[in-house]
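Input/output pair, single chain:
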Amino acid sequence: MFITDKKQLESYYTPKRIWQGVPGIEVTPKGRIFSAFYSGGTMEEIGNYVMLVKSDDGINFSEPIAAAYLENHRCYDPCLWIDPLKRLWFIWSCAPDPAVYAVICDDPDAGELTWSQEIRIGKDVMMNKPTVISTGEWFFPIAVWHTGKTPGPFNTDKDDSDRRAFVYKSVDNGKSFVKHGGASVKQRSFDEHMFLELQDGRIAMYVRTYYGIGVSYSYDRGKTWTEGQDSGIGGPDSRFFIKRLKSGRILLINHDMSLAKRRTHLTAFLSEDEGKSWKYKLLLDERYVSYPDAAVGDDGYIYIIYDRERGGNLSSFDAVYSCAREILYSKITEEDIINGKVTSPDSRLCHIISKLGKYENEDENPFNEIVKFSDKELAQHLIKKFPDKIIEKIFDYYPINCEYMSEIETDRLDRLVKSLEKEGSDKEKTIIKMISLIRSVSVKNDIHTPIVDKIKSIIEENLVNELSVADIAKKTGVSLYYMMHIFKKTTGITILEYAREAKLTRAKEALINSDTSIGTIAQECGFGSSAYFSKVFSQSEGISPSEYRRTLCHIEE
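Output:
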């Protein structure tokens, strides 16, 4: 699972990544900066991996020097932490067999880094740094997300009573861990909780919620937790960072909700009254950014990392390339926050650690973008992914082409559709011919006439002389099968069902707005005989045409 082989690591280099996000940061005693984040695939999914990069000058960052990946799993939500022994912990979560793993580097300032074997800390998800409390105990924040908050096939065997934001405690420098109590804060989101030891001895657990940040307290060093409540801090339902600094002040990295309506205006706050108020603040980045983590160096600087426009969970390379897909960090001091601006000599804001460009393996077509498939590849894709909806999918992919076909092309397309339905036909060959034909159509640049509106107009203009579906297709100039597909997809009913309702609607209007006989109405609305009209009308409305007229005319009076 844990990879340090240089050749293998090339698979995780910048040009191999489509998206990236959820970063962590640490700074060694000698000032080396480590950053971790995760990627893999096109979204949060099986196949994700975490990676570690470093910088010795704070300016230039390496390609991955380590990674964690497990086939048929997702490795995600990495966390970096330098413990009291000055060892670097590289931590990540894994699914669908939910667990939190770590490797430890005894000397993170060494020229050649060496790592421990993988350690299993506990179950389910952890992404924020542990907290060392005054008694020397190490608190690791590991959560079991509540039902509906599991991006992947895991945690499904638990009920909500087992799903909490837990403490995993170590009293032997990380050799073993004991699962302590957990808090369940109302309207909790993905938890992403952090601990803070207060001056009165309580341990506060801050938890991500839909309304911002909730809080629960423990009076017995993490064994039990009070009922969760709104902390009053606020936030856009996103990750935050909180820590007590050596000065005694509390540092909070969060979105400034006096300015932000979503994940913008990431800000560093300081509190001098145990979090009751946040007297000082420094805007770090006003753009759409998220998921801060922070570390305090021996030089007194605060290093704050976050991501910007991850580029995941999209459906095309055009959409991906429109995103920044950056991992950034800022380096500031307490004095900068107090002054509300950067004044310290080595401070900097918005420095890029990693930025993605064009994906090297576009030809793999990871988004299954139709335009990138050859005719044969698209046919094979449809047969594999949508065996029962091949025709519908083709029509959905190429609606404009289908509407601009010539009469000859339309007839040929309909023959191919019929051929596809015959037993013993070469399905793949026929589908390739259909795709080739549709793609060859020259699409006009002007705005096309909405085909459904055109169909409706044709039906309403020919209620008396009822047209067949084939006749309507000829009048629209499109494929019979495409016409039936697009009409049903748009309206939810078939063309024949619409025609019947159109005739009934016109008949109802005539019944209540005129003295025309029922026989004449039947003729003028395309029902033919009054007997057939009465039968259809009664089946639809539950009463006869004459009763309908009598009842509604009575109401009108």
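The first strand starts at residue 2 and ends at 3. Residues 149-157 have pLDDT under 50 and may be disordered.
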